[in-house]
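Q: I'm teaching a short session on how sequence maps to structure, and I want students to see two examples side by side rather than one. Could you give me a first protein with its sequence written out and its structure tokens following it? Keep the formatting plain so it prints cleanly on a handout.
A: Of course. Example one:
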Amino acid sequence: MIRKAAPLILLSALLAPTSMAGTAVAGTAATRAATATATRATDPLVVEQISSAVLRDPAAPVTISGVVTGTPSASVRVVVHWGQPFQAREQMAAFTAGQGYPTPSYRTMVQATPLDGAGKLRFEFALTPRDLGMSRQGVYPLAIEVQDGVSLQPIEIERTFLTYVPPEQPVPKVKLALAMPIVDRPHRAGDSDFMDDDLRASVSTGRLASLLDLVQKSGRTVTWFVDPALLDDARRTATGEYTVKTASGGAKKAADPSARRWLDGLRAALTSRPVIATPYADPDVTALVHAGLDTPTQDAVKRGAEVAGDVLGREISTATAWPVGGALDRDGLDELATAGVRTVLLSGSTLPPDPQVATTPDTATTLDTVSGPVTALLTDPTLSEALDTDTSVPGAGTLARQRFLAETAMIAFEQPQGAQGGLGQQSGTGQQQSGQPQQPVRTVVAAPSTRLWNPDPEFVSGLIKAASSAPWLQMTALSSVRPGKAQVPRSDLVYTDQDREAELPRTYLGGVKKLGRQADIAETVTTKRQNLFGDAVLRLASASWRGEAKRASGFVKQVRASIEQRTGQVSVIDTPRALAGANGQVPVSVDNSLSESIALKIRVTSDDKSRLGIDARGGVYETEQLNILDNRSQLVNVPVTVHGDGGESTIAVQLLTADGRPYGKQVHVTVRATGYTGIALVIVGAALAIMLAAVVMRILRRRSGKTLPRDAAAPVEQRAVPADHGDKP
């Protein structure tokens, strides 16, 4: 009787021969994990299609088809199991994990049937809800098993679900919000330093091209989280020539038309869809806070809104944050709240109900922070896992779709918390019994667990379409989800040791912190501040560097070199100086090679105070603020005092920003000085002796001249002054 009601159709064999020899029970997770790579293309059992995601008509058949692979001509049996509807999601999880399933009411099997010469057997079942004993709406178990035809030992089993909703029965509703990321790791170090050209392939035929395809195919209620740093990188490659760093320097690249098409397509597709900007470069918020870095998160939130709005051509909110992994602790939450975030999207495991509840609670709750209340939206881990499905595994997409819809249906069918009786006691409808108060519609949220999500657009768009048509689901945008009046009590935020270990290392972030200080100084020295390295530092704090220490270090090195090159364009000229005398001034010259005016101070100290002192209070000479024009130099005279015999010594010259922070490294200028001791006294004494001798000689001459006879002097005077004979002959 059963075989007549549920006929099995065997189709022709396809594909290449493989071996089923040596197989044993392969349904456990451990066995599958160990053999996943080797058996992906040769899985003994693949369920390729289940024709109807939701069963409505009790007489309409659902087709279940697939392929068995094994040793050519081996005898196998294909067995289908089904049973009574589940009463709770916990039962569904146990069934999927192979921890047992309800004793089937019926069994349909294929008697010992040999595989063909290629080791293939295609199968197809056509079953109606009536055949499967479905008498009321609910989620039902379905298991397809392959057994050895001789020993009857199980070879492989696939467990899935069928959801039955007869049209004449009222259907409870649940709201579903989907969040999906458009995020990539940074490709630039400094603003003009592309470290790779991977973006070109990704936007043309790779992961980002698939994401754009999905955006265009998805419904208008899906909320998209877009990383502004990715938009920034794509815009840079799309609008002009750029340079990609290579081992030998850099390679010039022409503007990428694929990036232009990708940006234009994304801009158009997101116009009518909900969009939220992540903080710029999607920072690792908890790691930053734990490393004592507060400002990067706040800067990233502000910068994210600016860049996203500029690229997409409309205002984009950053008031909702989605921390990496959906995990957050109190410190990270407070930091986001301080930055202006009012909603956080977290994994449901981060805020579990306390005490545990039998049914799925509403997704929204409220958390207190130092900056006021913040709404937490909690993703459902099981639904989110379905979005992560690797559809390159044969049959995985079909089973994921069935699981996703069955889970949401079970949420809708669950008896509301506090109501009497279980699902099976609800008059066979999944509705509340007559006379009970109407319960509010619950909301669930699903989102991929990985940031660098690489979806199959056909699978995800098909899943969204199936969910949109499910009679128990009402699709909604993330922004519409609000906490209900009656919230389920929850524990405090759960942040595990594994979550901490996954963070960016403190040693790495310590280097980023130092670079941030250097970048800020390089930007503030100009009279008109510019954002030269702020974005570069934010890119170094990206959560995408988790587990990518080697790649990240290359970006850090490049940013450091750019900052040092910029800083070096304002420098102290360290030419040796000469100083004569015990007191004097040493000229110090500052060169500004930038194309902008700068404002700074100069501080000078002596490296050897026993030889050369700075003639200023405390031995420190510091100027007032100096304004130096672009491409100019400025001279400052530093008062000094020479001690002892003088000689050669050095002074330390430190440039300072206008607010007193050191700019660049100290420069040591050599000063050659001569003191007034030793030879100086000899020279002065000799000069005085010569002067005194000259005075004495003059006095002696005058005295000797006065003692000569008067007549003896006359001839001399006559000879000295010749007589004027006038007109005498």
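Q: Perfect. Now a second example for contrast.
A: Example two:
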Amino acid sequence: MTDPDRQIWDGMLAHLRAHHATICRQWFEELEPLGIAAGTLQLRTHSPLHRDYLRRICADQFNDAAQTVSGRLLSVRFLGPDDEVLQPTPSKKPDGPRASAPSGPVQLPIDPRRDGVRPASPAGAPAQPPTSLDRPHTNGTHVPAEASPEPPEVHVRPVVANGAAVPSKPAGSTPTPYESLVVNPDYDFANFVVGPGNQLAHAAAQAVAANPGRAYNPFFVHGGVGLGKTHLLQAVCLKIVEANPRTRLYYTSCEGFSSQFFDSVQSGEMGEFRHRFRDVDVLVIDDIHFLTKLDRSQEEFFHTFNALFQAQKQIILSSDAPPEEIPLLQERLVSRFLWGLVAKVEKPDYETRIQILKTKARLRGLMLPDDAAGFIAQRLDSNIRELEGAIVKLQIQSVVEKRPMDLALARAALGEEPQPAVGEPTIQSIIDAVTEFYTIRLADLQSKHRQRSIALPRQVCMYLARRCTRHSLEEIGGFFGGRDHTTVMHAIRTVEIKREKESDFELVVRSLEEKVRAGRGPAM
């Protein structure tokens, strides 16, 4: 590409970081600018799923950046690895003989809301063939995708990697937009933090992705809201499509299944509906527990399940509860959900939460210090979505206030620690008191250093945390550099023995405990 085009792309990246920071990802740097043609800046992605994600989620922000930086009415076109590139200039000679580019819809930017699906034609206008099914031949004619020497953009009809293609309708009728769930490229196995609460589910998901239809079928993962079930489902989708881009994979929600079923019943198109859900290699449905009370949807899903299972096609389901605890779910469905592997995802422990925070920050190109991660992990322990929300808040506040990502910013972003009940201080208040008394830093307490000047204050912190808070031994140890519960137990015994033998030390510990329980400053 030319130098001016390169300058526009570099300026776009800077604009996105400054004005649309929340969508920015590290892999944006890997996008390949191919130059400007027909009023569009073409960007090459390294997988169809990255392309689809950008089209569906980031198109408006990229167009805003392109127009702001260039000062022109410029749009952005995202291309997959095998998508055709528009020629940047009419005068540039191609490498070999080539027919002139058709002047029809092929040269227009693809609708970012759909992957390979052309928008509905206006009433009375002739229907255009879907671009994902037909490809322009070198002589200007069209051939079906199945006969083309190149594969379709993702894979063959009727399914794309992250949802179903819109079925064709008779001329003059209104098409039904069967929106699919977006597969987020961030949700791969490399970015999934494994901890004690999700080890089984993670291992099973990897096995399913490596051998779909044969490892565990069905694969049923359940757990509370925001604990990583969707991440696992999308990681399986990404891995399967990466290994075989022509896999017919359909990923939707239970609500999507039910609404499409009722639409098809009303329009008399059950044949199309069954083709969409049963002629696939992998069916992934999120939040299957919403089938409850929907008797007709349960009946249809029962037959869909049987058809896929008998054909050895992979079925992947997620739910807030295990199959036997989903209310009003037909017994025959419960039985079938238990045929494969049922894996539970539990709340992440303290150490896992710290790693999740650092991973979420890294994906956004941010560096989160250990003390800031520890503070956030202590404050937020409900689910992963809260942790990601905290990273977004820190990122926005850092950009707006032009402050570094550190502990002070984390405290400002999340607000001060809520006032605890009398006699129940927080670990952070204990650390503040001990570090000020002993004149050391939090980083020293969390380090691996064992010299007495650091080890003793660390043991005092662990002792007071166990004595004054409701945190488990494991959580306390995780806060202080990922130490296990036996280390915390040893620290508690050491402090107790030292208190009995040394009166001066006894006075120090008692004073520190009184201060933190009363919510006052550190002992002097």
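Q: What should students look for in example two?
A: Point them to this: Residues 189-345 form a domain with the Rossmann fold fold (CATH 3.40.50.300). Also worth mentioning: The chain has four domains: 1-90+109-115, 189-345, 350-414, 427-518.
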